[in-house]
Amino acid sequence: MSDNPFRALPSVAKVLASPALAPAHESHPAAAVTAQVRAALDRLRDRLKAGEPLSADVDTIAREAMSALDAQSRPLLRSVINATGIVLHTNLGRSPLHEEAARAAYEAARGYLNLELDLATGKRSSRQSPVRAGLKAVTGAEGATAVNNCAAATVIALRAIAAGKEVVVSRGQLVEIGGSFRIPDVMAVSGAALREVGTTNITRLSDYERAITPNTAALMRVHCSNYRVRGYTKSVELEDLVALGRKHNLLVIDDAGSGQVADLTPFGLPGEPLISASVSAGADLVLFSGDKLLGGPQCGLIVGKADLIQRIEKDPLMRAFRLDKMTLAALEATLLLHRDAKKAVRDVPTLRMLTTPLAELKRRTESFAEWVREIPGVTLGVWEDEAFVGGGSLPDVSVPTVVLGLSAAGLSESELAARLRTGTPAVMARVQDGRVLLDLRCVLERQEAELLGALTIACAEHSPS
Ligand SMILES: *Cc1c(COP(=O)(O)O)cnc(C)c1O
């Protein structure tokens, strides 16, 4: 070892002059190139300090700076193949859109559209009209509007009808949805005062009735989206809450959460409220998410009495919560698909994934496994397993599913999972009992070839990078 190994490091100017950096000077600002060269030299200096032998010449340092620059100009948001089996995976963006909805968003994005213009009259119109028509058609409600998500729907609905007044809610329904969305906090933001009644497991109609004061504006039911209270429990049916509301001249709000528009009960997925049922039970307002069981873009939907919807739309917060043109276009297209419930279950990706028969998934997985078997060093099996719906929906319904369990020679299961996660395309799998599990339920058919390619690269003995 020489006396001063740091002297062996080239200067910034010398690295900048390396031919390996010539393309970088073309496509990146000078300051960015210099910054990455300095960063690469700093990393080397740190390694020297740690006692590592110096292993890089000018060109290697230049190439390292180059790949950092390239990485910087790639978007951080990337497509992910969802092989977890969790259909409504909030971290993976919940519902993938139907092609028609995706195309509608794409066309809206890249050009102009009649967002707030009635083409027949040439006059200004409401951006809500197209989705209002769609929502009324699929839920039977007399009024409807849409905002950015269900949390926003709750805030604006409560603010418009109950600010400065009390809203009665059962203690058994004070949910936290995840990402710190708590019903009591959301209510506080709206300016409505929460009046809790009952206990965690038991709330009776008489509890609601006793809590009513001259300052009560509404009774609210919140769907226990991501948990179930079991055992000795009692909650009040929406119909009974509506009857109580009528008796005392109070509004009834139903926060349905996932909210099925197409009935999934025949497919073994019971337990989520049907939006049309809440409407016909007489709820004045029903709130639900657009990107859960509707299978559309992220948004919050409010359906119910027309006069209340008007009040909500006149609230100044509407300007802050309103949907953008791409979401509106995707939502309208999704709602058009829902006009035929049978077709929606078959064609809307979220619903198709949730209702794929086990036998069909098994056939598909077994024929995919034939391809995977060809990858050198791979051991695999196909077996039945269980998955959950996710996205705070159907928490106690496990969906029978089929998985492909995989291990690769020389790689631990977490190494293989990490390679899949950081590859291109990124693949999210499950890791369980020493294997990586792939569930094809949420892998779109057009992604199978890409998935096979990603598996081949990840299982190769040496990582390509
Ligand atoms: C999911 C959910 C929400 C929040 O919906 P976002 O669209 O994610 O804001 C609110 N309430 C209930 C009951 C839910 O299930």
From TrEMBL:
Protein name: L-seryl-tRNA(Sec) selenium transferase
InterPro entries: PyrdxlP-dep_Trfase, PyrdxlP-dep_Trfase_major, SelA-like, SelA_trans, SelA_trans_N_dom
Broad enzyme group: transferase
Subcellular location: Cytoplasm
GO molecular function, one term: L-seryl-tRNA(Sec) selenium transferase activity
Catalytic activity: L-seryl-tRNA(Sec) + selenophosphate + H(+) = L-selenocysteinyl-tRNA(Sec) + phosphate
Record keywords, A-Z: Cytoplasm, Protein biosynthesis, Pyridoxal phosphate, Selenium, Transferase
A single BP term in Gene Ontology: conversion of seryl-tRNAsec to selenocys-tRNAsec
Organism: Gemmata obscuriglobus
Gene (UniProt): selA
Primary location group: cytoplasm
Domain L-seryl-tRNA selenium transferase N-terminal: 6-45
A single GO cellular-component term on record: cytoplasm
Cross-referenced PANTHER family: L-SERYL-TRNA(SEC) SELENIUM TRANSFERASE
